[in-house]
């Protein structure tokens, strides 16, 4: 099995940290914190207005639905009080997923299920959903084995997640993760992933696992009535939906920050799936996926395109439109050989994982033609490039999480 590297690929104020002076990053973050300390973050959440959240909440609020956030953990934050279940820590192997030294997972979780009961702070699009945290990243924002992410997906499925959010990705496919996603499909779970961000020297095609057939792959749009594609979003044939992904106020342990990246567009699609599953608890995952596709607001060229997929996710339409049911996930166009639709889940791994064989030019009999065997190079897609210069500047400036104010 090749190495797995998980590292943030977006930034607070630019696609990559080298694109913007560190001072600009600090100033934008400080401005977000100042607004937050005055209790003004609710007014800054343009994504809620764009997605007509107030109308959607008249129909569903996410109650009864668990959304797994497979990420850097989900830390303590007033916006998430009472919203987060006991999860799993696959980094330290001795925790419940509530430690988030990176901040990324906490931001994702609040965009999905931030509290709406006091009109303050970050409000999630599905404010009554519950978050199941699964930590797969260490304090340096990386991990060395894609099977850890796969294990996290399987664990989330086995612990009643109805939607799984994967705001991470990389250039290479992983058979272990592909099988875990198949397992999720077989267990009637919706899987959402970000497409990835443009970065110097990084992948130019949509990242994996977003390009895994059956996954809702999400691109990002920028603020404005024209719904322009965010310039940092990757595009490609596997793009399925678009959602707001830049100039967002994010909750993080200790306070708030301004974030952008496809990492933060994906949770808005996950939240929409949670709204649908809240309104219709018995609706199969395949029909939830179909409903989100069929009700999306078409952007760009007529019909599906590589920038916006089928269009901007539309929670209100998804909760009101008549959509014919389907038997299978229509995005799952390349099931395993001999299988139909979601296919049959592989057995759950037990004990110590056995290292996979090295990739070879000729696949052995029975190999999956749609997936690369071997390693997965994953990266969190958004927030701040924790391996780059921007975060170094932030840390040197003393802007650590324990110094940030709350708005509540």
UniProtKB/TrEMBL annotation:
Keyword Nucleotide-binding assigned: no
All copies of domain Peptidase S8/S53, residue ranges = 62-311
Q: Which organism is it from?
A: Catellatospora methionotrophica
PANTHER family recorded: CEREVISIN-RELATED (PTHR43806:SF11), PEPTIDASE S8 (PTHR43806)
What is this protein's record name?
A: Peptidase S8/S53 domain-containing protein
Is Ion transport there in the keyword field? no
Keywords in UniProt for this one?
Cell membrane, Hydrolase, Membrane, Protease, Serine protease, Transmembrane, Transmembrane helix
> Where, by residue number, is the active site?
71, 104, 263
**Family statement:** Belongs to the peptidase S8 family.
Bias kind Low complexity: ranges: 353-365
One GO biological-process annotation of the entry reads:
proteolysis
| InterPro entries from the UniProt entry | Peptidase_S8/S53_dom, Peptidase_S8/S53_dom_sf, Peptidase_S8_Asp-AS, Peptidase_S8_Ser-AS, Peptidase_S8_subtilisin-like, Peptidase_S8_subtilisin-rel, T7SS_pept_S8A_mycosin
Single Gene Ontology MF annotation? serine-type endopeptidase activity
Q: Which domain of life is it from?
A: Bacteria
Q: Where in the cell is it found?
A: Cell membrane
Which residue ranges does UniProt annotate as crossing the membrane? Answer: none
Q: Which GO terms describe its cellular component?
A: plasma membrane
The membrane topology term of the UniProt record is: Single-pass membrane protein
**Region Disordered: what ranges?**
332-371
